[in-house]
Amino acid sequence: MSDEPDLVVDALGRHCPLPIIDLAKRFADAPVGGTVELLADDPAAPADVAAWCRLRKQQLLGARDLPTGTGQAFLIRRTH
Protein backbone atom coordinates (compact mmCIF):
# COMPACT_ATOMS: atom_id res chain seq x y z
CA MET A 1 0.00 0.00 0.00
CA SER A 2 1.38 3.38 -1.00
CA ASP A 3 1.79 6.27 1.42
CA GLU A 4 1.20 8.70 -1.43
CA PRO A 5 -2.27 10.22 -1.84
CA ASP A 6 -4.21 9.39 -4.99
CA LEU A 7 -4.78 13.10 -5.61
CA VAL A 8 -3.20 16.34 -4.34
CA VAL A 9 -5.22 19.57 -4.40
CA ASP A 10 -2.97 22.61 -3.99
CA ALA A 11 -4.96 25.51 -2.54
CA LEU A 12 -1.99 27.37 -1.06
CA GLY A 13 -2.45 31.12 -1.24
CA ARG A 14 -6.22 30.83 -1.69
CA HIS A 15 -8.60 32.21 0.91
CA CYS A 16 -11.87 30.90 2.34
CA PRO A 17 -13.99 29.48 0.80
CA LEU A 18 -11.75 28.69 -2.20
CA PRO A 19 -9.77 25.79 -0.66
CA ILE A 20 -13.01 23.90 0.03
CA ILE A 21 -14.37 24.74 -3.42
CA ASP A 22 -11.14 23.45 -4.97
CA LEU A 23 -11.40 20.27 -2.88
CA ALA A 24 -15.05 19.71 -3.83
CA LYS A 25 -14.38 20.20 -7.56
CA ARG A 26 -11.54 17.68 -7.65
CA PHE A 27 -12.65 15.15 -5.01
CA ALA A 28 -14.47 12.83 -7.43
CA ASP A 29 -11.21 12.43 -9.40
CA ALA A 30 -9.94 10.17 -6.60
CA PRO A 31 -11.13 6.56 -6.48
CA VAL A 32 -13.55 5.44 -3.77
CA GLY A 33 -11.34 4.24 -0.92
CA GLY A 34 -8.51 6.45 -2.14
CA THR A 35 -7.06 9.51 -0.48
CA VAL A 36 -6.94 13.18 -1.33
CA GLU A 37 -4.40 15.57 0.15
CA LEU A 38 -5.48 19.21 0.37
CA LEU A 39 -2.68 21.75 0.79
CA ALA A 40 -3.98 24.95 2.35
CA ASP A 41 -2.62 27.89 4.30
CA ASP A 42 -5.89 29.70 4.97
CA PRO A 43 -6.45 30.04 8.75
CA ALA A 44 -10.03 28.79 8.36
CA ALA A 45 -8.97 25.59 6.58
CA PRO A 46 -8.79 23.25 9.62
CA ALA A 47 -12.37 23.98 10.67
CA ASP A 48 -13.64 24.14 7.08
CA VAL A 49 -12.09 20.80 6.08
CA ALA A 50 -13.43 19.07 9.20
CA ALA A 51 -16.93 20.47 8.57
CA TRP A 52 -16.84 19.54 4.87
CA CYS A 53 -15.83 15.97 5.72
CA ARG A 54 -18.65 15.65 8.27
CA LEU A 55 -21.24 17.06 5.87
CA ARG A 56 -20.07 14.93 2.94
CA LYS A 57 -19.52 11.83 5.12
CA GLN A 58 -15.88 11.57 4.10
CA GLN A 59 -13.08 10.48 6.45
CA LEU A 60 -10.57 13.08 7.61
CA LEU A 61 -7.49 10.99 8.36
CA GLY A 62 -5.43 13.84 9.76
CA ALA A 63 -3.38 16.92 9.08
CA ARG A 64 0.29 17.77 9.20
CA ASP A 65 2.22 21.00 9.04
CA LEU A 66 3.96 21.65 5.75
CA PRO A 67 7.77 21.71 5.87
CA THR A 68 7.78 25.34 4.77
CA GLY A 69 6.14 26.27 8.06
CA THR A 70 3.17 27.81 6.32
CA GLY A 71 0.02 25.84 5.86
CA GLN A 72 -1.08 22.29 6.38
CA ALA A 73 -1.72 19.14 4.38
CA PHE A 74 -5.08 17.53 5.14
CA LEU A 75 -5.48 13.87 4.24
CA ILE A 76 -9.02 12.75 3.40
CA ARG A 77 -10.26 9.27 2.45
CA ARG A 78 -13.01 9.12 -0.16
CA THR A 79 -15.64 6.83 1.34
CA HIS A 80 -18.21 6.93 -1.47
Automatic annotation (TrEMBL):
<protein>
    <submittedName>
        <fullName>SirA-like domain-containing protein</fullName>
    </submittedName>
</protein>
<dbReference type="InterPro" id="IPR001455">
    <property type="entry name" value="TusA-like"/>
</dbReference>
<dbReference type="InterPro" id="IPR036868">
    <property type="entry name" value="TusA-like_sf"/>
</dbReference>
<feature type="domain" description="UPF0033">
    <location>
        <begin position="9"/>
        <end position="33"/>
    </location>
</feature>
<dbReference type="Pfam" id="PF01206">
    <property type="entry name" value="TusA"/>
</dbReference>
<comment type="similarity">
    <text>Belongs to the sulfur carrier protein TusA family.</text>
</comment>
